[in-house]
Specification:
This protein is about 50% helix and about 15% strand. It has about 725 residues and is an alpha+beta fold. Strands 9, 10, 11, 12, 13, 14, 15, 16 and 17 form a nine-stranded mixed beta sheet that branches. Strands 1, 2, 5, 6, 7 and 8 form a six-stranded mixed beta sheet that branches. A two-stranded antiparallel sheet has the order 3-4. It starts with 9 loop residues before the first helix and ends with a helix. The structure holds adenosine-5'-diphosphate (ADP) and magnesium ion (MG).
Length: about 725
């Protein structure tokens, strides 16, 4: 394989040096139909009605919708848009959109630009090809998309042409959610209702709304585009299915937070500029642990908007990379043996009047409130650890979870020493008689209870309390964070309600005493989910087993959590997912898991039979000819043992790979006999994946033996270090 010289976009770098950047604030959000634009463009009464509807989550009347649509169209046309699209989140893949031009026939051979309230509010994509998991038969395939007013419309510029994108939900005609946004919106409402109820009991009557926030830290790999296109596996599956580890990996730890190279810096700059225009508050950028691995993190936002923005971040990363002749890999494990990519999902609850419910406060009262919400979250994670695990399940993430670089599949909570001690004190009954004085003695009277440094030290925990938020670290880099966020919101809503029930049962009185009493009673039941140690350690697996915590290593195992009565009751009670909607997700994600592995297996088959074996045979021939040629010249006395043993090993490996490949093929054929989704997914996970691992070992050995110029695809060292 010929080495390439990285094609650095020198022109771009030069330009960036010459031209000064504008302050971000001067153009932030200019490609969104933001509240500011709406205020400018809409009649006052319409604007107010729209804001009220957004706030209350109410439907728009047609008069308002028409006025908004008109203003939106005018704004979009001013900004060069020719088309509009309802932009939504199907159950698999990232986002979907179908474009329509803003035109209507206005006379013979003439058109005019038009966009109605109806078109804004509701769209009808031909949805028959989206997976519905049995929610609707194909003959009644038409679902519809509906504008989610709480997320601003934006301009999508991609190549030539600009499209007005309208963030939307996607629903069947019976009202069933066919997407990932609808359940998220429902869960946001659920946790708002429950949290407000608890706040009232804790005598907060001021807050009117509780908001769930997300701050996703997006990790990704970025390699030269030329390498990307030379690897069928990267193009088709997003990861390298074959490849021997490079001589240098990440052991020097010289990449993490290292100075960002010029080419990457220019790329990141362009990504961020585009994100700012879309109103996405990208804040942090840095090198990650593995070579050619990076991270981008925004300032956190309301869950609904934060999710949309993360989807746009993933999209932009890939789009802008092309302009720099780079390829962004969002896959959870693009290179075996090298750290994979995750997406820490930072989550918190705040009120409309600025209270963070996970922030220990300055007064005993604040801290009682903090402890109540903390307990609720612990209860939720303890009860639904399996659901959390299921929410991050995918064929790709299975390569990462538990691979000593990412949290294990065991979901536990890290609280930090100080908080743990405080809870222990409460449990032991030191705070039997609760007065403000005892609260002060407990060390929970004022801040900071947990300093960030202290809580952040344990990076191995899958669900860590980090000062004023929780950080769910098992989420995969390529995932839509919608469902993980939906699960967290819903399970916490349930626990908050339980806590509220308990408080109500005990009646009014000393609320602080009541909360402390409840913590004392509840803590022993849930504290098995707390773990402050090293989550990567082998002993933790044994310990977790002793504690009865689920350790669901594979996605098919984990997805079983969606079938349980417990999950059904939870989602139904909070009207987040009906049993049918839940079941459809179970089916779709099992199917997706199987398809992902099947595609990988077929890709592996194709690469090996059409690239690897031919290269090996060629080298085998070269060696054989060299041996016989040398013998001819030097006679049989010549010592050819090294070449001979190499030839022998290569011949063995060619045979070994071919046999294993035949085995893989027959395993793939046997899938046809398995009808049940769950059984099929188990089969792919246990049988097909193991067969692939077996083949890989031998191919990776071949890679080390065969002449470099004959190896038919870029190697790890090139992809990871030539940039
Ligand atoms: P780390 O050390 O894990 O990189 P950062 O402080 O950089 O942590 O924060 C990571 C992410 O967490 C950012 O996206 C940030 O906006 C987000 N974040 C901070 N506070 C909150 C909060 N209260 N709720 C949700 N996300 C938050
Ligand atoms: Mg983090």
């Amino acid at each position: 394989m010929r080495k390439i010289t990285p094609t650095i976009a020198t022109e771009r770098i030069y330009k960036a040096e010459k031209e000064k950047d504008l302050p971000i604030s001067s153009y932030f959000g200019e490609e969104t139909f933001s509240q500011k634009v709406m205020k400018e463009k809409l009649p006052k009464s319409i604007y107010e009605r729209l804001m009220e509807n957004i706030d209350k989550g109410k439907k728009l009347d047609i008069e308002t919708a028409n006025a908004v649509a008109h203003a939106m169209k005018e704004w979009a046309l001013e900004n060069g848009a020719t088309h509009f699209a309802h932009w939504f989140q199907p159950m698999t893949g990232a986002t979907a959109e179908k474009h329509d031009a803003f035109i209507e026939i206005s006379g013979p051979g003439e058109v005019m630009e038009r966009f109605t309230g109806e078109q804004l509010v509701q769209g009808e994509p031909d949805a028959s090809s989206f997976p519905s998991g049995g929610l609707r038969a194909t003959f009644e395939a038409r679902g519809y998309t509906a504008w989610d007013m709480s997320s601003p419309a934006f301009l999508r510029k991609n190549g030539i042409g600009t499209t007005l994108c309208i963030p939307s939900v996607f629903i069947s005609y019976n009202g069933e959610a066919l997407d990932k946004k609808t359940p998220l919106l429902r869960s946001i409402r659920a946790v708002n209702d429950s949290a407000l109820r608890l706040l009232k009991l804790l005598s907060n009557r001021k807050s009117k709304k509780v908001i769930s926030n997300v701050g996703p830290e997006q990790e990704y790999f970025c390699i030269d585009m030329d390498y990307f296109y030379k690897r069928q596996d990267l193009v088709l599956t997003g990861r390298t299915i074959l490849g021997a580890p490079p001589a240098k990996g990440q052991e020097l730890e010289d990449q993490y937070f290292g100075s960002i190279k010029q080419r990457m810096q220019s790329f990141m700059h362009d990504v961020e500029e585009d994100l700012y225009k879309l109103g996405i508050p990208a804040k942090t950028r840095h090198n990650e642990v593995a070579p050619s691995q990076f991270e981008i993190a925004p300032i956190f936002e309301e869950a609904n908007i934060g999710v949309d923005h993360n989807l746009l971040v993933m999209d932009k990363l890939q789009q802008v990379a092309r302009q720099h002749n780079l390829a962004v890999l969002l896959h959870e494990k693009p290179f075996a043996g090298i750290n994979g990519s995750g997406k820490h999902l930072n989550w918190s609850l705040t009120t409309d009047d600025g209270i963070n419910l996970f922030k220990p406060g300055k007064t005993p009262h604040d801290n009682i409130q903090f402890l109540a919400f903390l307990l609720a979250t612990m209860k939720a994670v303890h009860r639904h650890a399996d659901l959390l695990r299921a929410s991050v399940g995918s064929a790709a993430n299975d390569h990462r979870l538990g691979a000593n670089e990412a949290p294990p599949a065991i979901i536990s909570i890290f609280l930090g020493d100080q908080l743990t001690k405080i809870l222990e004190c409460i449990e032991k009954g030191i705070a039997n008689d609760v007065t403000d004085k005892t609260i002060i003695d407990l060390g929970i009277s004022s801040l900071p209870v947990v300093s960030r440094d202290n809580s952040d030290r344990n990076r191995t925990s899958p669900f860590a309390f980090t000062g004023n938020k929780f950080e769910f670290r098992a989420v995969g880099s390529s995932q839509n964070i919608s469902f993980p966020a939906t699960v967290i919101n819903t399970i916490v809503a349930e626990s908050i309600d339980e806590l509220a029930d308990m408080i109500e049962k005990r009646g009014a009185g000393n609320i602080k005493q009541t909360v402390i009493d409840i913590i004392k009673e509840e803590l022993p039941k849930v504290k098995s989910v707390l773990f402050m140690g090293d989550n990567y350690a082998e002993e933790w697996h044994k310990e977790a087993k002793r504690r009865g915590l689920p350790d669901l290593k594979t996605t098919p195992e984990a997805l079983r959590a969606l079938e349980t009565k417990k999950a059904q009751t939870l989602f139904e009670k909070y009207k987040v997912l009906s049993p049918l909607e839940l079941k459809s997700r179970h089916t779709i994600w099992l199917e997706k898991f199987c398809k992902d592995i099947e595609i990988e297996a077929r890709t592996m088959f194709s690469i090996i039979s059409s690239q690897v074996i031919p290269a090996a045979v060629k080298y085998q021939k070269e060696l054989a000819e060299s041996i016989s040629g040398t013998e001819k010249v030097l006679g049989t006395a010549a010592d050819l043992s090294a070449q001979k043993s190499l030839l022998k090993r290569i011949t063995e490996l060619i045979n070994g790979v071919s046999t294993a490949l035949a085995m893989l093929k027959s395993k793939l054929e046997k899938r046809n006999g398995i009808d049940d989704h769950q059984k099929l997914a188990d089969y792919f996970s246990n049988e097909v994946k193991t067969a692939m691992d077996e083949i890989r070992k031998q191919v990776d050995e071949l890679e080390l033996h065969i002449a470099d110029d004959m190896w038919p695809m870029p190697k790890f060292w090139e992809m990871l270090f030539v940039n």
